[in-house]
Each structure stands twice: as structure tokens, then as C-alpha cells.
Amino acid sequence: MQRVRKAVLPVAGLGTRFLPATKAMPKEMLTVVDRPLIQYAVEECLAAGIEEFVFVTGRNKSALEDHFDAAYELEATLQQRGKARELQQTQDATIKPGNAIFTRQQRPLGLGHAVWCARDWVGREPFAVLLPDELTIDTPSCTGQLVAAHERTGGNVVAVMDVPRAQTSSYGIAAVKDEKDGLAAVTGLVEKPKPEAAPSTLAIIGRYVLTPEVFDHLDRHETGAGGEIQLTDAMAKMIGQQPFHALRYGGQRYDCGSRIGFLEANVAVALHREDTKADTRALLGRLMKG
Ligand code: G1P
Predict the structure, then answer these.
(1) 276 pLDDT exceeds 90?
(2) Which of 3, 40, 106, 180 is the most buried (most CB within 10 A)?
């Protein structure tokens, strides 16, 4: 079986929910405590042994490319000033030479189309997809758990979590059977069903390990929910053809595509991290009293 070596990061979205912050800056550069969302996604992949990345970008996204490059002047200055910690933090945000590819989704035709834009680079091997709006924190990482499940099942695996029924129309929803130790066989996938039509309340949380056959379906450019080319629809076509499982994710997950979810992520990560924990607790205590 081929190892999962590559990740596709769809980052072409406009981030309209964060305007004006995202007027001149990609939404994936929004910061949770001290690093941009995109870096969490890359670090999640590295923790899963994935070291090659394709970013499917759009206009105004060049900051993403700069972020993962070496920053010669900055690094030289930090070195000169003896700022070892800051230098390390800067260098940690670098992707190995030749391991990051940037390609543009030239038209906003949907998530399925964005992933399809990476087809030639991925080739015929299994790959991960991460939507950086969703921040997940766990050990092993959410993507690491999917990779391990892929190695056990040999097929496609998506991470899912239960959501309130009223929210099914915001997600891809999975129907499953035979759940054992958090892993279940997928029997159906529907993109953004109305609550009354949803086959379950198990939502796909933007983490996938897929087999390259998904490109054979995406190649057809069929549109689905919202008139877009949906990744969920292409995945649904593989059920019965390929092993397809849903992994119930039990770690922390924040929906950073919404303002309140993003705020929650900042507070939660600050409360979780050893270096910011105590100060954040004290700060929140003061603010709540006021
Ligand atoms: C996308 C996917 C959806 C998934 C969601 C997770 O939707 O199409 O299946 O559940 O991400 O965040 P979007 O939020 O981009 O509309």
C-alpha cells in the first residue's frame, strides 16, 4: 500500500465573513494566538508524516507563499540580535525546499473543483485534504488518525463529528453503519442537507484521506448543492466501489470560518498552551468580573 505523502490545502476562498480583515489579507493568515491558521494545518500534516503540500490558491493569496518561504533579512536580523527563540519560530514556519506547490483555482466553482485543480500534482496515490478554516488539535493529529485508519482499511476516510440537527445544512453529512471503536462504514454522503432530510447528524469536519479515484469523478465537473462542484458528491460516487469509512473525531475542533468560532479558538488555544495559560486565565477572570 502506498503511504500518504501529500496534502491538498484548498485556500482560494474569499473570507467574506471576516471583512474588512480579509480585504487585503488571506483569511488563512488570521492568527490564533501567534500563528496563522494555515500553519496549524501544515503542522497537523507534518505530525502525520505528510511533507508535501499543494496550496490551491486564488488572487490576493501571495502572503501564504511568503509565509512558508525562508525570510532571509528577518532571519539575519534576528541572528544578529541574538534572538534565538524568535529565529527558531520563524524557521519552524518554513516548508522544505521544493515541497510546497502553489496553483490557482482560476474560478470559484466549488471545493470539488479546488481539489481537482491539484490532480496532476497528486497523481495516482492516496492524499490528504485539509480545510484550514477548521482548526483541530489532538494527539495524534486528526489527519494522523485518518492516515492510520487509511492504513487499516486501504480506502477513503473522512473525519466526522456530531452536530445539532439544526446545523446539518452547513456540512457534508455521512450516513454510517457498523461503527466500531469510532470507525464506521459510510453508506451515504450528502452535501448540506436540510435538517429534515439529513440521513444523520454526523458532519464532515474538513479532514479527508482520499484515494486518487476521486479525481475520476471530479473530472466530470458535475455540479451539486449550491450549483457548485462538490467534493462530497464525488466522494459519494466511490461508496461501494472503494472502502469508505468515517472516523469519529474526539479531539478539539474549532470552526474558524465563523467569527465566534475563531474567537473561541483563540481563547481555547491560549488556555491550553503552557506559555499563555496562566495569563489568559487571569485575564479572563478580570474581564468577567468587570
Ligand atoms: C465544506 C464541505 C463540507 C464540509 C465543510 C466543513 O463546506 O463542502 O462538506 O462539511 O466544508 O467545514 P464549506 O464550509 O466550505 O461550505
Answers:
(1) yes
(2) 40
